[in-house]
Specification:
phosphotransferase system, kinase activity, about 5% helix, mainly beta, 8-stranded antiparallel sheet, about 40% strand, kinase, Glucose Permease (Domain IIA), 13 strands, PTS_EIIA_component, PTS_EIIA_1_perm
């Protein structure tokens, strides 16, 4: 069993709340979403690794961390943010780096994404998992590093 932690502070929501059919229909895998909070001090939000493992893929707007047990967890920062071509994002780690749960991966501005008319919601998906396999979600506010589910 692998505990998955919240990669960013905000409101924990079902994946069906994501305004993108690929994520909402769990085509990539089952998971949850977090509507990120804007930090009180106006600083960028920081996405941290939801699990310990190796950074398999790192884009300005997304990361996949592969656990030692072979579980891949995707964190996607916002919807349609690939079109920003990295603007407003800072990578804080390199691909293939070994990370612990809670290690910083990406910094970004939720307000900056929203100011461009995009959703800042962050899907957290267990890659290639069966739809509905992450269930019984309790909507709540979470801090980065809080437990969100076990896989």
């Amino acid at each position: 069993m692998t505990d998955v932690q919240a990669p960013v502070a905000g409101r924990l929501l079902p994946l069906s709340a994501v305004p993108d059919q690929v994520f909402a229909a769990e085509m990539v895998g089952s998971g949850v979403a977090i509507e990120p909070a804007v930090p009180d001090d106006g600083a960028d939000a920081v996405v941290v690794s939801p699990v310990a493992g190796t950074v398999l893929k790192l884009h300005p707007h997304a990361a996949i961390v592969l656990t030692d047990r072979g579980v891949g967890v995707l964190v996607h920062v916002g919807i349609d943010t690939v079109g920003l071509e990295g603007e407003g994002f800072t990578r804080l780690v390199a691909e293939k780096a070994k990370v612990e749960a809670g290690d910083p991966l990406i910094a970004f501005s939720p307000a900056g994404i929203r100011d461009r008319g995009l959703s800042a919601i962050c899907p957290v998906v267990v890659m290639d998992s069966q739809p509905g396999s992450i269930a019984n979600l309790e909507e709540r506010d979470v801090a980065a590093g809080d437990w969100i589910f076990t896989v």
